Amino acid sequence: MSSRKKILLKIIILGDSGVGKTSLMNQYVNRKFTGQYKATIGADFLTKEVVVDGKLITLQIWDTAGQERFQSLGVAFYRGADCCVLCFDVNNAKSFENLDNWRDEFLLQSAPRDPDNFPFVVLGNKIDAEDSKRIVSSKRAMAWCQSKGNIPYFETSAKEGINVDQAFLAISRNAMSRESSTEMFSELPDPIRIDVETNSNDCAC
Amino acid sequence: MGGGTPYIAVTSDINNDDSSKVKLLFAQSKVYFQQTKSASDKVCGVLVVIQKFLIPEADNTNAIYVSHVQLKGSLNHGTAINSFWLSIEQIRGLVVTWPTFMKSHGSVIFNMYNGSSMGPLFFHEDEKSVKSKDTSNQWGGVLLLHWLDRLYSIKRSKTNFNFFSLLPKTPNNNTVKYSSDTIRETDCSGSSNKQSLQMDGNRTTSNTLNKSNAGHGSHTLAAQLLSADYQKKSQSTGPFGRPSNSTQWDVFETFSYLTKSVKDLASYALEHPTGKQVTNYLPASLSEFSNNFYNNFNTNSSTHSQGNKSKFSKKSNSTGASIGPHSDSDEYESSRVYLAQWARQHVIRQQEELNLCEIENMNMPKDQNSEFGGSEVVWDDLIGESSDLDGDEFEVIDSAMSAKLSNVLRTKAPLSAETWFSYFCKDGVIDPEEKLQCDKQIVLKAIFSGGIEDDIRPIVWKYLLGVYPWTSTEKERKAIDAANEEKYYTYKAEWLDNVELQESDDFLEQNARILKDVLRTDRNLEVFATDEVGGTDESNLNSTGFPGSSASLEHLKDILLTFHYTDVPENGEENQKLGYVQGMSDLLSPLYVVIQDESSTYVCFVNFMRRMRRNFLRDQSGMGEQLETLTELIKVFNYPLYQHLEKANAENMFCSYRWLLIWFKRELEFSETLNLWEILWTDYLCTDFVILVAFGILLRHGNVIMDHLVRFDEILKYINGLNGELCLNVMIKDAEILFYRLKYRIEILDKQQKERESNMVVEGALVDLSLEDKPAVANVQVTEHKNNKSIVVSDRIRKLFYA
């Protein structure tokens, strides 16, 4: 029998449409980038097995449609999440300003225990674009993250694969921190004892 | 080679009679009467093909094959308790039910010319044939077919893939000859008998076994005797054939059961023809696992030592527990999805076969074209997969419905230019005004039956989308086009010239959204591919803010912006424009590709959006409504599947969201999408036909889902993975047949309800009226089940069929 408890962490990626959620997920899981992704309709997810701090974990990474019109679907998809990744495009102010909405919406719909301490990670994507196009500064992004309870912040490029692994490592760790806090509630099954002869002839069946 | 008499015999004792005069051609051990989970505790015999030398020196080549099927069952003591034999000449054909992914056994039923039948005989996958030149690991039923094929000519029925007709091989033979027409005819006329047999092959209860044998001569008695003996045996020894009262035994038993299930999984995978196909697609780890397991078990055969057993037991315990469809694990298990995708190959292969059948039918002359044909198979499969609990009803409906169903429309050849223009002809001459000369229903019927050929699609779509009235003349149509063009460019100029509007927050936001999506809509199509002369997307975006690399992309963007600009909120939308919503670009792109002209595409899109608008509402009520209808359909017409989905928290049907939002655009090839949409636009049977299409797909995959997937995320992953795996013709035909069947069932349920209300005194009338042909007593159980469930056909479902 497997002695180690299998760890599966559910990660939800949220953010405005076109900030690169699907790209980030695919870059991390499949090490691939293509400019030809279609707008995500509904939701999908990929899984990836990784070793973090000596533990084998399976990440289930959910990619959702970015338009707020579809947020009501969230109830079904957000349930049981271990970490929420908020994404914005550093070249798009609106996508940054919407982080508040995404965060609130997530907490509202997933209704996690202890929402104040639910792990979020913020990713500012598309840092590969020219400097002149950049609109949201690191400072501004970090200030927001700090104001929301020191949310870890990473600047990434799904296209170039910059910082993606580091970001997801942090995401995994944050998700695990939550997992370990809930572990004490999980029940361990009784071991099967085959060495004991029990004469249970009075069995009901 | 002398003249001989080949026998097929199933016997416990090959040496029993006159073996000196008999030549053993083929033998298959452990052929079972009783369908069971494991091969360890059944009544079984050996099936042999024997050539009997009646006339040793007779005519050399044209041997007259008088063949017999002899079946002898044996129990532990080795005594043959009964047997029967049948001449091959008596056999009209065989109904073969293959092992499936989750069933290690398949069955063969022999159908006689006199209308009786023998069987089913169950062949387990893990039994090897005793004597066979073909040493590949094939299922016994197939080996038998191969052997028969050497002696006789075996033809697979075109209308029922499980049926193989048996014909004398030599043309000079004096026995009955068959033209292909006769075969067709008999195939169809014998369908009811055949069908019930086929059902039995799929069912597991001894009840149905007995039923199928009822009144079919001596072998019936044999089957019943065997069945009774089997029951006696199981009572005395317990399911595993020995007393089970120690914990130790229980544990080993559990291990051995798990071992067995893993072994089965592995062996199905490699032995089953479907399995062979999919091994390549398996993830490395899984394929390695199955290979190892299979090899290990095979080298040890069924008699592996206790030591080996424990070794495997250990391994299988951990693996078996995690991959078992009903394991206690409450976490997502990707291996379950892998296995489901693997099992799906069976469904997909079946779809491909059905599709070939449809295409063949399509090319047949018209008089044959209208035959019920392959749809019978379609429906049988749907029943088999959908109605474990209440399947009996459908059997009865079958005979009652076959007349009504003889006019299934799908799949005909697509509407051709020739036919299309003939609709404008009167007495062989085109109407001078080029006005449609027939009822529009005739046109809609033709389109529903097969779609439209590419060359006339643009004009027919304009009719379908209401741009041209069906009664319009050529002159009127030209005027309409001109007016639409004028209108469109006026609108476009209005927002283009309105600087204030262009700088408004709303416009900027809509513009940005549309741009983002236009840039990622069907870019694989040539018409939207990057135009090298125009520069890359990025360079264009940087300089102009437009994608600009292709004029087509700009057209898409302008149409969507104009749509937003001209959009008028409908009642209940709180005076808010719909705005651009993701998915709209997917709806626009096929229109643009077909119509090509910017202004006409705009009008078509506006009209298309009238019916699709509900999919994009702010409160999502339109999507919710459709998904709930789908849920109710499943609940009313396939309760087991509903229960399963409910348990998995998937009964909200969010997994079908993408299907309905953009009408399968992401699941089908682009050309198939065009075909599906024009069929849906006809509203020929009902306006929400798309929901029935979705239901049909879920039924096709219902068994795989129920067998393998236990969680919402697993089901979602599986459903999302169906893109590219759906077969358009089969999808639509399934939906069409569902429409007729379900409508009929609703009528029955209504009738039942009415009678219940008007005739409360007669308790017996509560019997499910879909079983009206049968005496009430026989269906008590079904009735109870029904009453507990108390089927309510909601207005929502009713609307689907009676719009």
UniProtKB/TrEMBL annotation, chain A:
GO molecular function, one term: GTP binding
InterPro entries for this protein: P-loop_NTPase, Small_GTP-bd, Small_GTPase
Presence of the UniProt keyword Lipoprotein in the record: yes
GTP-binding is among the record's keywords: yes
Keywords linked to the UniProt accession: GTP-binding, Lipoprotein, Nucleotide-binding, Prenylation
GO cellular component term, pick one: vacuolar membrane
UniProt similarity note: Belongs to the small GTPase superfamily. Rab family.
PANTHER family: RAB FAMILY (PTHR47981), RAS-RELATED PROTEIN RAB-7A (PTHR47981:SF20)
NCBIfam families named in the record: small_GTP
Protein name as catalogued: Ras-related protein Rab7
Organism from which the protein derives: Smittium simulii
From TrEMBL, chain B:
Domain named Rab-GAP TBC: residues: 451-684
Polar residues compositional bias, start-end: 188-215
Segments traversing the membrane: none
Region (Disordered) location: 183-216, 300-330
Entry annotated with the keyword Ribonucleoprotein: no
Official protein name in the record: Rab-GAP TBC domain-containing protein
GO molecular function: GTPase activator activity
Coiled-coil zones: none
Low complexity composition-biased segments: 300-318
Keywords per UniProt: GTPase activation
Keyword Nuclease annotated: no
SUPFAM superfamilies: Ypt/Rab-GAP domain of gyp1p
PANTHER family: SMALL G PROTEIN SIGNALING MODULATOR 2-RELATED (PTHR22957:SF502), TBC1 DOMAIN FAMILY MEMBER GTPASE-ACTIVATING PROTEIN (PTHR22957)
